[in-house]
Specification:
The structure holds two protein chains of two kinds. Chain A is an alpha/beta fold. The relative contact order of chain A is 0.16. Chain A is globular, with a radius of gyration of 19 Å. Chain A starts with a strand and ends with a helix. Chain B is mostly helical. Chain B has 14 helices and no strands. Classes of the chains: A alpha/beta, B mainly alpha. Chains A and B meet through helix 2 and strand 6 of A and helix 9 and helix 10 of B.
């Protein structure tokens, strides 16, 4: 299991500071939920961890400094599911998932039997075998999200970064995707970091939450300590009610301002 | 059809086109005799074809170099088109996208209108000037596109448009200054293979080999770029570097083709697109099939160009556009239906 350590990381995009002196330890095998209002730096942090943007400070992935690894080595340790994945026209689900083997295929070589076997097992794992020869641009949004996840899993990286993995999915598919990620994390001992907008789902599917605001950690800890009405209204400027679900989870409900005044 | 089947069909089509182009002309040649004569050049084979000395000269000095050069030019243009479309993720990208055509046009105009008399030179100035112009045009577009800060494919394409407009303006000005060379410049711009000889073939072959090898080696990586630079990076691929190498190779291919044949349009667009419809978008098959298909298409186009108005010749660019444009419209229609 691979621990990710973020040590004093700052990122400026176009001269504007987006992350400022961030410190985080993401324990190996844990599920970290990144929450925070729009523009708080969630995506930027994921991109920095994945080595897609330059940063100051240090990010350690397992026993190595991320900055000291080559692109390929980094891609074998960290797989990323972007918020809006590009859907190349005309390629099949299998071809798409095979792209996940890129960090293992020699630069000018071609995929091995082993690569194909791994793709087949990932497709099987995510229940995509029936769609293997379908075109990626012809399947439904939920199926496509599974295909994107399959590509990331084909990377066999111990760290999985998810940027808003439930964007554009209905509530049923949101739950399916997150349950799937959870099962995979158990099966494959993954360290999972997801940026999430839905606070209820974040509370249900993460061990630890980190709330970013203005590029800094505003709150961190188990969901019960982060998801409080006070913290959420301060950082999201939102009126919410936080309820304990009898099942043990936390439910965050947006409420209309008027109604809240009546209630208090 | 399987990969092997498609490649075999392509090769058969190319062989058929080449044979037809060798046989048809003002002096018809006997197909059997030509095959025997060609086989005679293979190592360890001695044959007697029965071609007269004059027929043999027509075959070896006129028809064959022209077919080989046409094939090479077509293969290079289709290869460069497929490569550009892949790395720019833009179906309308063609080999002339980044200022190669405008640069070559300016180089050729300078050579035709202002160049010294090169009759006594060992090499002709025109192809060299066109080659240099094409390379300079692309380098200018690439440099300009990268200096913009945001190094996206869109900025690169836009800077190509700007460079092309500028070079074309200069070229048009020079061309108007020397109105007596207008016809020659215009003829060059439309593209032709009339001057084809083994000399031109030798000029193209090194660049053709180099760019073909480079792009064939990168064909799987071009597929990875289909998910965008960012996702390619998260898969361990340096997209900008792949793009630079592939664009450089495609530019060499384009420049070599332009140098010996002028500006032949549409090959770089219709050939790769047609192959995509048949064989799918993966560059692993698209690149080799574009080489074969481009060669076959241009050999046939040249055959039409030199026979429809015989003994006069049409510029080959007229043929590729005449058949290419309607065909391209058809491809667009059917691809919309597929998508």
């Amino acid at each position: 299991m691979t621990t990710v350590e973020v040590k004093g990381v700052s990122v400026a995009l176009d001269g504007r500071p987006v992350l400022t002196d961030l410190h985080l330890v993401i324990a190996g095998g844990s599920r970290l939920g990144l929450i925070g209002p729009n523009g708080s730096g969630k995506t930027t942090l994921l991109r920095a961890i994945a080595g897609l943007i330059p940063y100051q400070g240090e990010i350690r992935v397992g026993d190595a400094a991320g900055g000291g690894l080559s692109r390929r080595e980094l891609a074998r340790r960290i797989a990323m599911v972007p918020q809006n994945p590009v859907v190349p026209a005309g390629i099949t689900v299998t071809e798409y998932v095979l792209l996940g083997r890129t960090p293992y295929i020699p630069t000018f070589g071609t995929e091995s039997r082993r690569d194909l076997a791994i793709v087949a097992s990932v497709l099987d794992h995510l229940d995509l075998t029936g769609l293997a020869t379908r075109r990626l641009d012809s399947i439904s949004g939920g199926e496509r999200q599974r295909a994107v996840l399959a590509r990331a899993l084909a990377q066999q990286a111990p760290v999985l970064l998810l940027d808003e993995p439930t964007t554009g999915l209905d509530v049923g598919h949101q739950q399916q995707v997150l349950e799937l990620v959870d099962t995979l994390r158990d099966d494959l001992d993954l360290t999972v970091v997801s940026a999430m907008h839905d606070l209820t789902l974040a509370g249900q599917f993460a061990d630890q939450l980190v709330l970013l605001d203005g590029g800094r950690v505003a709150a961190a800890g188990p969901p019960a300590t982060v998801l409080t009405e006070e913290v959420i209204s301060r950082h999201y400027h939102a009126s919410v009610r936080v309820l304990e679900d009898p099942g043990g989870g936390i439910v965050v409900i947006p409420v209309r301002h008027v109604e809240r005044q009546v209630a208090t | 059809m399987t990969r092997g089947g498609l490649l075999a069909a392509g090769c058969a089509g190319l062989a058929g086109a080449a044979l037809a182009a060798v046989l048809v002309g003002p002096v018809p040649l006997n197909p059997g005799a030509v095959l025997v004569e060609l086989a005679g050049r293979l190592p360890l084979v001695t044959t007697h074809s029965g071609l007269s000395q004059q027929e043999a000269a027509i075959l070896w000095q006129l028809r064959l170099p022209r077919v080989v050069l046409g094939g090479l030019v077509g293969a290079m243009l289709a290869l460069a088109g497929a490569a550009y479309q892949g790395v720019f993720r833009n179906p309308l990208a063609d080999p002339y996208l980044l200022g190669a055509a405008a640069g070559a046009g300016l180089g050729a105009t300078l050579a035709i209108a202002y160049g010294p008399d090169t009759a006594s030179w060992p090499v002709d100035l025109l192809p060299l000037a066109a080659f240099a112009g094409a390379v300079i045009g692309v380098v200018a577009a690439y440099t300009l596109g990268r200096s913009g800060g945001a190094r996206t494919t869109t900025t690169l394409i836009l800077s190509g448009v700007a460079v092309a407009a500028f070079l074309t303006a200069v070229q048009t000005y020079l061309q108007q200054q020397k109105a007596e060379t207008l016809r020659e410049v215009y003829g060059w711009i439309l593209g032709r293979l009339t001057t084809a000889g083994w000399h031109e073939v030798a000029l193209v072959v090194p660049y053709a080999l180099l760019s073909t090898v480079a792009i064939l080696l990168h064909r799987r990586l071009i597929d990875v770029l289909a998910v965008g630079d960012d996702e390619a990076a998260s898969l361990g691929v340096r997209a900008a570097r792949v793009r630079l190498v592939v664009v450089a190779a495609a530019t060499l291919a384009t420049a070599a083709a332009v140098a010996v044949s002028g500006l032949i349009g549409f090959v770089g667009i219709i050939v790769p697109h047609t192959i995509r419809l048949v064989a799918g978008p993966s560059h692993r098959l698209l690149v080799p099939l574009s080489l074969i298909g481009g060669a076959a298409f241009l050999i046939l186009a040249d055959l039409v160009a030199r026979t429809v108005m015989a003994p006069a010749e049409l510029p080959i660019g007229v043929i590729t556009a005449f058949f290419g444009a309607p065909f391209f419209a058809l491809v667009l229609r059917s691809s919309r239906q597929v998508a």
